[in-house]
Amino acid sequence: xxxxxxxxxxxxxxxxxxxxxxxxxxxxxxxxxxxxxxxxxxxxxxxxxxxxxxxxxxxxxxxxxxxxxxxxxxxxxxxxxxxxxxxxxxxxxxxxxxxxxxxxxxxxxxxx
Length: 112
Description:
Low-confidence stretches: none
Number of strands: 6
Shape: elongated
GO cellular component, one term: cytosol
Helix content: 10-25%
Protein name: Transcriptional regulator
Largest sheet: 4 strands, antiparallel
Organism: Desulfotomaculum copahuensis
Strand content: 35-45%
Family: Belongs to the P(II) protein family.
Keywords: Phosphoprotein
Number of domains: 1
Radius of gyration: 17 Å
Mean pLDDT: 91
CATH architecture: 2-Layer Sandwich
Order of helices and strands: EHEEEEHE
């Protein structure tokens, strides 16, 4: 099993959810996060004073899938989330040792 964590633009969440849903991936965790990368934030003016906003709002999507699906799912996410601009996000891929469904006690891939 593999965990895929994606940091995305907030406006791309629905596109990614739709693409994953059509592929058959329905279980996911979505969090609102803030962070910075190559975008390096932006500068805004509030009441005549200039402020530097270094941490920008992003969405973090976490899914755990079977190892055989990783390449296809990463390609789906990349296609759905890409705008071609700096700040499109990142995808992190990590191995998962085991998973347990609390309700039934199922383990491994049957738990996801």
